[in-house]
Amino acid sequence: DAGVIQSPRHEVTEMGQEVTLRCKPISGHDYLFWYRQTMMRGLELLIYFNNNVPIDDSGMPEDRFSAKMPNASFSTLKIQPSEPRDSAVYFCASSLADREGYTFGSGTRLTVV
Amino acid sequence: AQTVTQSQPEMSVQEAETVTLSCTYDTSENNYYLFWYKQPPSRQMILVIRQEAYKQQNATENRFSVNFQKAAKSFSLKISDSQLGDTAMYFCAFMKQDNDMRFGAGTRLTVKP
Predict the structure, then answer these.
(1) Which of the residues B101, B102, B103, B108 would you substitute to probe the A interface, choosing the one with the greatest number of A C-beta atoms within 10 Å?
(2) What is the pLDDT of chain A when averaged over all its residues?
(3) B91/A43 Cβ within 8 A
(4) Which bin fits A3, alpha (ψ -120 to 50), beta or left (φ > 0)?
């Protein structure tokens, strides 16, 4: 089991550009979560999916953010256009429905200059 | 809304000694789950220990144990025989029945040789 796989590990982009973060959850996991981590706000839940369906996107900061899960093995988080305040580490996590705990990916460190 | 409070931003402990990290939470739920996650400098989020609220027995995982006080809404983590590799950020997390996990602000633990 390769765990939750996120790409890229680091991303540096210019303000105004589109950024796409990718996540491959653990095979067989029913839930997928996107979190953002910053020094000021800690770990914030952005959105989560159950069986590829978005359940709660109330944490998505604004319309510039969007997330999709076209199938059980892939999800994307897109920021368009990106702004410097979007700089953070973005984590993807997945879990089974039995609440054993989330398995996190290694995160993507996004820097918007 | 559920909130998780970690009142100790930073702590330190001598190698081989014992340290306790505090966590309190606020909820009106009766059934829920509590977790401690470790985030070393590599930034990987690692599940340390898990507790179901309906279980009175405190969870233990080798050198890690919790003191779960449901009435007081307290969930502290005790690390025995601290090792240099325990140096990390530690996050307390709460999860209610619908599988949505919320994190505290974290405690930075330094183990000194």
Answers:
(1) B101
(2) 94
(3) yes
(4) left
